From TrEMBL:
<dbReference type="InterPro" id="IPR003607">
    <property type="entry name" value="HD/PDEase_dom"/>
</dbReference>
<dbReference type="InterPro" id="IPR021812">
    <property type="entry name" value="DUF3391"/>
</dbReference>
<dbReference type="GO" id="GO:0008081">
    <property type="term" value="F:phosphoric diester hydrolase activity"/>
</dbReference>
<feature type="domain" description="HD-GYP">
    <location>
        <begin position="143"/>
        <end position="339"/>
    </location>
</feature>
<dbReference type="InterPro" id="IPR037522">
    <property type="entry name" value="HD_GYP_dom"/>
</dbReference>
<dbReference type="Pfam" id="PF11871">
    <property type="entry name" value="DUF3391"/>
</dbReference>
<protein>
    <submittedName>
        <fullName>HD-GYP domain-containing protein</fullName>
    </submittedName>
</protein>
<dbReference type="Pfam" id="PF13487">
    <property type="entry name" value="HD_5"/>
</dbReference>
Length: 409
């Protein structure tokens, strides 16, 4: 399907079907190509185009707030919670503001990332992981999510491809803790799930770096090596005294898929535990939103849209929908464009309306200039009637860093 879009809507992963003016009007060798990095977007912007055509059958679609998205959002919001939920909690307001928690969250991320690196090195040396080394990091992450559910998750979006291997484990831990808390799970279950999240990829310590960090497509033989990491991780963690069955299950089965096409056991549907299904959801979300050696990350809203498609086959539909209710259609840290033309970064969710979060606006697209930062609650009376999110934006399109404006005032 061919679609005409504004240049401001162009994102990594889209397939350019045609540029105005033919090949002589732009710096590319072809008129049709896949956008693989942010530098290509910058070249298109510099060429002065205002619109182009994309082929959504060959690449990503835009994430705009259309009537269909509104309808889908209402369906997500109204969906019955999965059986694993005790009392789903639409909002667990923390005790700390985002600005207060960001500093603590930065320190936690650095600590947990170093720990994951050290644990991987220990595994390579044949050492047994000591649980008392891991527990403080998970406790810190649980405490941070409890104080403010946004700080850690926003900062973990910023990881670069060189940091991915270790920060991915920290991200999965934080996302899974937030997801479990949202679902109203007991504190001990949430904590054990966090342990599983932090350790879920420990089996990759036995995968050669040349395969793990290969920028090109893996050979079938190399992919078989990668596919061994859940079983390898389970074997490594089975030697850890005191580790729960929850953490072992998450490690072994986070790559299982509901249609039976996952690994290592090819389980399907009810054969997979709810926590393993939840771990699969957060693992996929972090993987596709992260910059990696072989692809650029998708904007969060676009990733959630793609995951809704996958929930028809591979991922658990009920858990994908619950996860969207947890982090929002436009997760905190997302760059969005409002109807007024202003750009802003999402800083908090409105549990009663996923399309109306709290946004810190800082840039105007019509004048292409920064404006005095202002916090806008899109659900507030008087604002909801005149201001709304039009679409998610790619920061590189406007050459802005939205995370500079997480704290204003």
């Amino acid at each position: 399907m061919i679609k005409s879009i504004e240049i401001s809507q162009l994102c990594v992963g889209m397939y350019v079907h045609s540029l105005p003016g033919g090949w002589t009007a732009h710096p590319f060798l072809r008129n049709r190509f896949l956008i693989t990095n942010r530098a290509e977007i910058a070249k298109i912007v510099d060429a002065g185009f205002t619109h182009l055509e994309i082929d959504v059958a060959k690449g990503c679609d835009i994430v705009a707030v259309t009537p269909a998205l509104v309808e889908e959002t209402e369906a997500v919001s109204d969906a019955a919670p999965p059986e694993v939920a005790l009392t789903p909690v639409s909002s667990r307001a923390g005790t700390a503001s985002l600005s207060d928690e960001l500093g603590r969250a930065r320190a936690l991320i650095a600590q947990a990332s170093r720990l994951v690196q050290d644990l991987a090195q220990d595994v390579r040396l044949g050492k047994v992981i000591q649980l008392d080394r891991v527990e403080p990091a998970v406790e810190g992450i649980v405490d941070s999510i409890t104080r403010n559910p946004n700080a850690l998750l926003v900062l973990l979006q910023l990881k670069k491809k060189d940091d991915y291997t270790f920060l991915h484990s920290v991200s999965v831990c934080a996302l899974l803790v937030a997801f479990c808390r949202f679902m109203g799970m007991p504190g001990e279950v949430t904590y054990q799930a966090g342990l599983g999240g932090l350790l879920h990829d420990i089996g990759k310590a036995e995968v050669p770096d040349a395969i793990l960090n290969k920028p090109g497509r893996l050979t079938p033989e190399e992919f078989e090596v990668i596919k061994a990491h859940p079983k390898d991780g389970h074997a490594i963690l089975a030697r850890v005294a005191g580790l729960s069955s929850i953490a072992l299950d998450i490690t072994l089965r986070h790559h299982e898929r509901c249609d039976g096409n996952g690994y290592p056991e090819g389980l399907s549907g009810p054969e997979i535990s709810d926590l393993a299904k939840m771990a699969a959801v957060v693992d996929v979300y972090d993987a596709i939103t992260s910059e990696r050696c072989y692809h650029q990350g998708m904007p969060p809203a676009q990733a959630l849209s793609r995951m809704l498609e996958w929930s028809k086959t591979q991922l658990s539909d009920e858990h994908v929908r619950a996860f969207i209710r947890c982090i929002g259609i436009f997760p905190s840290g997302s760059l969005v464009r409002l109807a007024s033309g202003r750009l802003g970064v999402v800083t908090a969710q409105n549990p009663n309306n996923l399309l109306a979060p709290v946004v810190n606006v800082f840039f105007h697209t019509r004048s292409n200039t920064y404006i005095p930062p202002e916090q806008v609650d899109l659900s507030a009376p008087g604002i909801a009637e005149r201001e709304r999110i039009v679409c998610a934006e790619c920061p590189d399109t406007w050459r802005v860093d939205p995370h500079r404006f997480l704290e204003i005032g």
